[in-house]
Structures are given as C-alpha cells and as structure tokens.
Design a protein that fits this description.
About 35% of the residues lie in helices and about 20% in strands. The protein is of the alpha/beta class. Strand 3 and strand 4 form a beta hairpin.
C-alpha cells in the first residue's frame, strides 16, 4: 500500500473541504499548509497582496514543522488558483521539500478560473517528481471517482 500525504493550502475553506474528501477516499495523512503571516481576510486586500507576491515570485515563510517527504510515496497538493497559478504558501511548501521520485497529484479549487497554469507551475517546482495532470476540484462529488482512477493500491 502506498503511503499518502494530502497537503493543502486553503484561504477560504474550499480547498480544505476537498482535502478532507480526499483523505476520506485514501486514508492518507493530512497536512494544512499555513503561512507565518496570515493573509488579510478582506477579499480585495488578499487579492491585491497575492497578485503582488505572485508577480515578484515571493515565497512566504510557513508556520509549523513540515512533514518529512521521505515518509510518503504519493503527495496530493491542494491550492486555490490565484492569478492562474498556485497560492504562494503552496509554492513555498513544494520548494521546501525533497520530492525526488515522489508522485505529486495536484488538486486545484477556483471560482471559475479553471486550472490556469497551476499544473505547469507545479511541474516546474517539482522537477525531480512525477506530477500528474491533477484535478479541477470545484465539484467534490467527483473526488471518489478521481481517487479510484489513480490506482494508488
């Protein structure tokens, strides 16, 4: 049986809900990526801050100890689509671990922006890993079928 980690960053709670569904379907361990300096709750303020951070390639510091990637074979990575890419805390997480030889399965939530360039950006951050095409995770009822299709046993 493959050892599975579900790591996610969620600002509004949507990505957290998807991560919990994936945990139910896989039995994997779950890890919430949290930034050291929280983003503002105000929608306009977080949008403006995220836009600036993404344009600058900023990777914010994370709060808490990171999981040891060596303990896992498969890592699901969840993030909202912010300005067509993953949220900066998710980028920090991926950049901070040795993912050599790991299978990375992205799941992306969004409010209508689709996957944008999230998957190609994740592939750039995880060049030593095998990155799946991922899941457009806007509809949670698709998760059990998606997980079953991954052949994780």
């Amino acid at each position: 049986m493959k050892r599975i980690l579900i790591a996610y960053y969620s600002h509004s709670g949507a990505t957290r809900r998807v991560a919990e569904h994936i945990k139910e379907s896989t039995g994997g361990d779950i890890y919430e990526i949290q930034e050291l300096e929280p983003y503002p709750r105000d929608y306009s303020a977080v949008v403006n801050q995220a836009k600036k951070e993404i344009a600058a390639g900023h990777k914010p510091s994370l709060n808490g100890e990171l999981p040891d990637a060596a303990d896992y074979d498969v890592i699901f990575i969840g993030s909202p689509n912010w300005w067509s890419t993953i949220a900066p805390p998710a980028a920090t997480f991926l950049s901070s671990l040795d993912l050599t030889g790991k299978r990375i399965i992205p799941f992306i939530t969004h409010g209508g922006g689709g996957l944008g360039r999230t998957i190609s950006d994740i592939k750039k951050l995880c060049q030593a890993a095998a990155v799946d095409d991922g899941l457009d995770a806007t509809r949670s009822e698709r998760i059990p079928e998606f997980v079953k299709s991954l052949n994780l046993k």
